[in-house]
Amino acid sequence: MSKTLSGKKVVQSGARPFVYRRGVLHCDGVGVASLAEKYGTPLYVYSAEQILRRFQMFASAFRERPHTVCYAVKANSSLALMRLLARQGAGFDIVSGGELERVRRASAAALKRVVFSGVGKQVWEIDAALRAGILLFNVESEAELDVLAARAKVLGRRARFALRVNPDVFAETHPYISTGLSEHKFGIDIKKARAIYKKAANSKWLEAAGVSVHIGSQIRKVDPFAAALGRVTALIAELRLDGHDIRYVDAGGGLGIDYGAGDFDPEHQVERYAAALTEGLGREKAHLLLEPGRFIVAQAGALVTRVLYVKKNGAKTFVVTDAGMNDLIRPSLYHAHHEIVPVRQAWGRAAKVDVVGPVCESGDFFARDREMVAVRPGDLVAVLDAGAYGMSLASNYNTRGRPAEVLVDGAKSTLIRRRETVREMLEPELLP
Ligand code: LLP
Fold first, then answer.
1. Cα gap 388→258, rounded to integer Å
2. What pLDDT sits at residue 2?
């Protein structure tokens, strides 16, 4: 039986801004083939409209409650995307001094809406964040709280903080990105939190302003969010009894998307998420902070790559593309599934192929034993849902320059990062 696979169903799932028009894949109003011609490949292409729509979904689902969406910069730290979100009033969840600097460049006004997470904050990073007057430090250990108090004293600036508690809640996801169990390095045992808040009250340089939690990433079921927040809410009640003025509850990020070809209704997903958080919060009225990353940017982006060679080894067919694991590491690192579609719609017999990159590792693949319509050298394909943890995890492995990035806004496209050159990659190196 000859099966036709044109990629059409995949791109028409409604959750993605990529559609075929006149047989060519488009990102909103712009043909992807023309972008590849203009800017070369591998190329990340993002839809501004989709990013804004996703952001608005949060705003609408949480409209009943005072909240700030602090976009998790690590998902995609492009300055242009950050500015887009900042203009909508987004805050940012950062995990390094480098990300803090990105916020400053994208929108200095957004610095006051920054929350600083991470288990290994360094003194220079804490200092920079104190000077910038960020909203909240999400503190992950007692030792870090001591350092924060000491730096706040030196700089003469009070530090608003939340303890990031570890609620010991299991959330089904890949083990590398699950964080809410006591066996994980993240957060402070929720049972110990009350005592640490008490101790912190002795320092006039610390202001206990919130409690935060984050249980992991790519979480599809919403019950674990409700469970985690329920525990946090109970803790907040105790903290109030102890006299702490807790004004913020930070629910972290982690809401998952559907990387598959099935129907996925993102709006419904955010509504379910909001309902779960509301359940966990009960009557708690604190200002809610949210730290979504993936949900906002993942499906807005695709990695466009050109087929270099098609080769057979024994029974296997390999489609070798000009993008590799250094450009998008998710399939190699988490065995993550990404749909791959031809840029020029093609019909024909589907065959199983491995789609692989040029990097010298057998782990350098985008898909294994994937049914695809035959592609030829020179053809373009798009790896979908690559907007989150794609470019931000890209590296120069094999001394390969990282891809260029283009932002599509309706019928307009703008280069937001040019392709890295070999000269730039070698520039920091010194020969003794
Ligand atoms: N807040 C904190 C404290 C986090 O650690 C993370 C993600 C987020 C928010 C955002 O989570 P999201 O809404 O994007 O799920 N590289 C992996 C994902 C790592 C997630 C790390 N932390 C991947 O490609 O699946």
1. 13
2. 36
Q: Which two tokens stand for residue 180?
A: 């809410």
Q: Is the predicted pLDDT of residue 4 greater than 50, yes or no?
A: no
Q: Whose CA is nearest to atom 16 of ligand 1?
A: 389
> What pLDDT sits at residue 274?
98
Average pLDDT over residues 150-155: 98
Secondary structure of residue 103 in the 3-state scheme: helix
Q: CA Rg, the chain, in Å?
A: 23
> Is the minimum distance from the CB of 75 to ligand 1 under 6 angstroms?
yes
389 lines ligand 1 (CB under 6 A): yes
Q: Domains of the chain (ranges plus CATH)?
A: 3-47+299-426 (2.40.37.10), 48-296 (3.20.20.10)
Map 311-352 to HEC letters: EEECCEEEEEECCCCCCCCHHHHHCCCCCEEECECCCCEEEE
Pocket test for ligand 1, best of 217, 290, 337 (most atoms within 8 A of CB): 217
CA distance 204 to 201: 7
Q: Catalytic one among 360, 411, 430, 431? A: 360
Q: Is 360 a catalytic residue?
A: yes
pLDDT of residue 181: 78
**Model pTM?**
0.96
Is the C-beta atom of 217 inside 6 A of ligand 1?
A: yes
Q: Which atom, in ligand 1's list, is nearest to the CA of 214?
A: 3
Round to the nearest angstrom and report the end-to-end CA distance of the chain.
64
Ligand 1 atom closest to residue 294's alpha carbon, by position in its atom list: 14
**What span, in angstroms and rounded, lies between the C-alpha atoms of 80 and 108?**
14
Q: How far apart are CA 312 and CA 315, in angstroms?
A: 7
Reported as type and span, the H/E element at residue 276 is: helix 266-281
